[in-house]
Write a structure and sequence with these properties.
Elements: H1 13-26, H2 28-39, H3 50-74, H4 80-89, H5 91-123, H6 131-147, H7 150-180, E1 193-194, H8 206-219, H9 228-231, H10 240-268, E2 280-281, H11 295-304, H12 310-343, H13 361-377, H14 382-385, H15 391-414, H16 418-449, H17 454-482, H18 487-490, E3 497-502, H19 508-519, E4 524-531, H20 534-546, E5 553-557, H21 564-577, E6 582-591, H22 595-598, H23 603-612, E7 618-626, H24 628-633, H25 652-657, H26 661-664
Parallel strand pairs: 3-4, 3-6, 4-5, 6-7
Antiparallel strand pairs: 1-2
Helix pairs in contact: 1-7, 1-10, 1-12, 2-8, 2-10, 3-8, 3-10, 3-15, 3-16, 4-5, 4-15, 5-6, 5-12, 5-13, 5-15, 5-17, 6-12, 6-13, 7-10, 7-11, 7-12, 8-16, 11-12, 12-13, 15-16, 21-23
Length: 665
């Protein structure tokens, strides 16, 4: 796609919702389960805290959604939390937010895909041995889809998202209706008991508070991905801020409804889950071989009439799809944020480049590689990965809301319109409430998850923060060093060009290099060869004179049979003797058509170039000679990625496929 076609990739709200909100919508599938798993540590006696913890999560989600609607309207450029923190709290705070979000996006991909694979295994337990392979395959599929472009990925992912939302809503309505008419659904695990972990029985006082807080922090996974819309405002159709704010409100309403409904049905159907299946009592057979179904799978089986019902398989398929596609939120948020950071010189510039389909391809690939390594390292286990999760998102929540409070304070200092002042004050209250609440949650998450693995996420964010500052220092130093201070002095011509043509033997590439060097009309031109074998050097000089080549041939002896160092030392000696001279080194090279042929040619030339490039006042020029294999290889594949962007002519196949560029697109 041409750069001018960027406007064609802008999203309507119906596509933006599944693209940017699939993560918070999908968290319904495991947020309730995470609360129950923590409370199960104390046994069934503490499950009566579930409604209160779920209510706290719902209130927090509502506050965060309202707060981010303010961010979307005030900072619509797409920087989201990073821009808010950088503008109002300073660059260092902005980098804290950026580092936290980048880590959290990686965790979003890992946790979402692993959780989706879990739901597939709940429906087909025989696939348990292929957990990691399936997870990596889904990451590869998501990567391929996103490389096709934002709009294309939105179309592909919209249907599964709406199927999941519709299926869960129908399940909630059906389950609540059955409960109201006296036919409450009963989970397959309802008759199980749960033994408390050693040391977790009869909890009281501070220990009970810590257990409840830990369950609350796990339930806060329902908030992951809420900020993605604020980062993706530029991808919306106009009016961008209004459409983004509306999409965020719809996402919040759907998430709250589904989370509250699933939690209610889990309590009504008496679902039982534990981190260790052997703590479940009443299991028929060995607990080691027992595979627990996820909470949403047990609810679906209970509501729709068993594990072989159509409704059960529908919910499992839709849940697995949405959980895997939830990673798409990160595949949009990570490249966008990476592009902004690269534009601000905190990350490599390559992350700011758009690919063939106007997607940030390098950011997509970087996210896929890191998330894939994480899934492989943690065996795609949700329980192990979840402890590294949500820390970053609450860091960004807290700092962005604090930054918004400072923004409104600044606006109130200059605003005189009473109506606008009232609106600013209300917005400040909303953001202040969000900042305080998310700050408390951040402390809770740190306290309850740090020793269980969250320290690794903190360390990763800290390393990333230091790295980004170092990258910015490098770019700033490079820009200062390369800045033109006096154009006239920089344009002064060298006193002389001393040209050297490197020679190994007399053949066509050597003669072409000599002719090319002469065309520059240098002040001095000579051919240079290194004598490793005296007889060969003498034969070369004899042929040189026999062919009548007018360019003088200089032979450097190398008693230790090394080629690179004598050449580099000679070139440096010329520069030392005449610092105002430019030394131009011409190197004949073969151009081959196969990768394995490169192993057989040009190794000395490659090493020489790498050494000479570090020598001041030296210009290195490669003079190519195309071998027959390179001519045959110069045939672009039909519809090859990047072929149009690189200016390659269409192959016969692509000409046959379409008569014009527009038809090929």
């Amino acid at each position: 796609m041409r750069s001018e076609e960027l406007h064609e990739t802008l999203l309507p709200k119906r596509l933006a919702l599944p693209i940017f909100a699939s993560d918070p919508l999908s968290s319904v599938a495991y947020a309730t389960q995470e609360i129950l798993l923590v409370l199960s540590l104390g046994g069934l006696a503490y499950w009566h805290f579930t409604p209160w913890i779920a209510t706290a999560v719902v209130i927090l989600l509502a506050v965060v959604v309202l707060s981010y609607r303010q961010v979307v309207r005030t900072y619509p450029s797409g920087g989201g939390s990073y821009e808010v923190a950088s503008t109002n709290l300073g660059p260092s705070a902005g980098l804290v937010v950026a580092a936290s979000l980048l880590v959290d996006y990686v965790m979003t991909v890992a946790v979402s895909v692993a959780s989706g694979v879990d739901n597939i295994i709940s429906a087909v337990p025989e696939l348990a041995d292929y957990r990691v392979l399936m997870a990596l395959g889904f990451v590869a599929l998501l990567t391929a889809m996103n490389l096709r472009g934002v709009r294309e990925s939105g179309r592909a992912f919209a249907t599964p998202t709406y199927l999941f939302v519709g299926g869960v809503m129908i399940m909630i309505a059906t389950g609540l209706f059955r409960y109201l008419v006296g036919d409450a659904p009963v989970a397959e695990s309802a008759h199980y008991g749960i033994e408390a972990e050693p040391g977790e029985t009869n909890l009281a006082g501070l220990a009970l508070v810590l257990l409840a807080l830990r369950a609350f922090s796990q339930g806060c996974t329902a908030l992951t991905g809420v900020e993605a819309i604020s980062n993706g405002v530029p991808a919306f159709r106009k009016p961008k801020p209004k459409n983004a704010a509306t999409t965020m409100a719809v996402m919040g309403a759907i998430s709250i409804t589904m989370f509250a409904g699933v939690t209610t049905l889990a309590l009504i159907s008496k679902v039982r889950v534990a981190e260790d299946a052997c703590r479940l009592t009443g299991i028929d057979g060995s607990c080691e071989s027992y595979t627990q179904r996820t909470v949403i799978a047990q609810i679906a089986a209970a509501v729709f009439g068993g594990e072989h019902s159509i409704g059960f398989y529908y919910i499992q398929a839709a849940t697995a799809l949405i959980l895997i596609l939830a990673a798409n939120t990160a595949f949009n948020g990570f490249p966008l944020l990476g592009s902004i950071l690269a534009q601000h010189r905190y990350l490599p510039r390559q992350l700011h480049n758009r690919g063939d389909r106007l997607a940030f391809s390098n950011g997509i690939l970087a996210l896929a590689i890191v998330a894939g390594l994480l899934l492989w390292g943690y065996d795609a286990n949700v329980t192990n990965l979840i402890h590294l999760y949500i820390l970053g998102v609450f860091t960004s929540f807290t700092l962005s809301q604090t930054g918004m409070v400072r923004h409104w304070n600044r606006e109130l200092h200059t605003e005189t319109d009473p109506a606008l002042r009232r609106r600013h004050k209300l917005a400040r209250v909303t953001n202040a409430t969000g900042g305080v609440v998310t700050g408390l949650v951040l402390l809770i998450v740190l306290a309850t998850k740090f020793t269980q693995g969250a320290w690794l996420a903190v360390l990763a964010a800290a390393v990333l923060w230091v790295t980004m500052r170092a990258i910015r220092r490098h770019y700033d130093a490079t820009a200062a060093e390369l800045a033109v201070t006096d154009p006239r002095s920089e344009l002064v011509a060298p006193s002389r060009v001393f040209a050297i043509v490197l020679v190994s033997t007399i053949h066509k590439p050597t003669l072409r290099a000599l002719s090319y060097a002469r065309a520059f009309r240098p002040g001095h031109l000579e051919a240079l060869t290194v004598s490793v074998d005296r007889d060969e050097a003498a034969a070369l000089r004899e042929r040189w004179e026999e062919y009548g080549i007018e360019t003088p041939l200089k032979i450097i002896d190398s008693p230790y049979r090394e080629v690179t160092r004598p050449v580099v030392d000679y070139v440096r000696s010329i520069h030392r003797e005449s610092p105002r001279d430019i030394v131009a080194v011409f190197i004949p090279e073969y151009v081959v058509g196969h990768w394995w042929e490169n192993l057989l040619h040009n190794q000395s030339a490659l090493w020489l170039k790498s050494r000479l490039l570090f020598t001041p006042g030296v210009m290195v020029t490669s003079v190519p000679w195309q071998l027959t294999s390179s001519v045959r290889a110069d045939r672009p594949a039909a519809r090859a990625p990047g072929a149009v962007r690189r200016g390659e002519p269409p192959s016969p196949v692509s000409r046959h496929d379409g008569e014009s560029g527009s038809r090929q697109r």
